[in-house]
Amino acid sequence: MPAVDFHWEPAEVEFRGCHSAIQRKFFSLPPKGIVVTTAEIENTKWYQPTVSNLDELAAKYFGNPAVTIQVEFGALTHQGLRRSNNEDHYSVTRRYRARDVLLTNLSIDKNALRQDEAFALAVADGVGGAAFGELASMLALRTGWELTGKAFKWNFNPSKAELDEMEEAANVYMQLIHRRIQEEAAAKGGYDGMGTTLTCALTMGLDAFIVHVGDSRAYLYRAEKLYRLTRDQTLAESMVAAGIISSVEEVGKQFRNTLISCLGANMDELDVATNHVKLQHLDRLILCTDGLTDMVSEENISKILASNASPQNQCQELVDAALAGGGRDNVTVIIGAYSACSESPTASMDTIETP
User: Fold this and answer.
1) What is the mean pLDDT, run by run of 10 residues, along the chain of 355 residues?
2) Is residue 60 part of a domain?
3) Per-residue pLDDT, 198
4) pLDDT of amino acid 183
5) What pLDDT was estimated at residue 41?
6) Is the domain of 79 the same as that of 153?
7) Which residues pair with 125 in a beta bridge?
């Protein structure tokens, strides 16, 4: 077969009135912040990052410097003393990725190969009646599990753009669960009005991203202080926000327990709240349903968390305190204890965003 000689020359392309972003997307122009240098050999163009944005680009594509952490979890749920069933559901999930060297002539300590880990925590408290609430909270966690099977981004860089993307993803996540519950209620018949709260935390290294609908809560315990990371989406809290009252304690229990946003339950619109927190060594992250916070004051929760007990034993102590306080509702608690095993940047107290 005779040899075929191929010859290629770059085409001259003229852009008239074309937005620079469109040029970059469709015609492979260099992204913003990239300096294009032209080599003399064969007129080859190379993309060369400027020094000022090299670290930013490195974090975007390859992740931030690794922080090795250890996490110990505890979780417990109880139907309470006055309920015949438990409408709460919870989950703690670990995701991980690893790599292994199969063949190489490099000197590599295989025992030193890192395994990246991320953890997802969730509590859901069903509303709308015994059987209805139990089904709704179960559907919330099961749907969340199905949605996040493949949707995950490991190179998380907590820049404004990344956080905006996470917030958008969290909104879509909650909206899809919301729709699933409403569809199930409509299909079954007689389940109209079933709904659930859902409070989740995703932690990657020392970054924690909180997503919240309803009146279950997320807390951070740090240096003997308890910080609330979520705001109850109740009628009482909305009255405080509107300046009608100064404290939720000024109104009755019916106002404090009336939800203005939850998944399902004939809600037309959702108020999906998010929060990003930079964790520190020895922080504890707590997720719980209102069966705990209605029965145990934040002061007493803080006292229990101040002990050196394991997260599981602290969960038991908190549930016991809720039962001792009357146990009027189902009660569920998750505690994650975070320990940094290497030098890592820490955040000041001022960086904790409280609602």
Assistant:
1) 48 45 47 50 54 73 73 98 95 88 82 78 88 92 91 71 90 96 90 94 94 97 97 93 87 84 91 95 97 97 96 98 97 96 48 57
2) no
3) 98
4) 94
5) 46
6) yes
7) 88
pLDDT at 58: 77
Range(s) of the domain holding residue 29: 20-49
Helix H, strand E, coil C: the string for the chain is: CCCCCCCCCCCCCCCCCCCHHHHHHHHCCCCCCEEEEECCHHHCEEEEECHHHHHHHHHHHHCCCCCCEEEEEEEEEECCCCCCCCCEEEEEEEEEEECCCCCCCCCCCHHHCCEEEEEEEEEEEEECCHHHHHHHHHHHHHHHHHHCCCCCCCCCCCCHHHHHHHHHHHHHHHHHHHHHHHHHHHHHCCCCCCEECEEEEEEECCEEEEEEECCCEEEEEECCEEEECCCCCEHHHHHHHCCCCCCHHHCCHHHHCCECCCEECCCCCCCCEEEEEECCCCCEEEEECHHHHCCCCHHHHHHHHCCCCCHHHHHHHHHHHHHHCCCCCCEEEEEEEEEECCCCCCCCHHHCCCC
Q: Are 321 and 288 in contact (CB under 8 A)?
A: no
- One domain for residues 206 and 77: yes
Domain count for the chain, please give it.
2
Q: Is the pTM above the cut of 0.90?
A: no
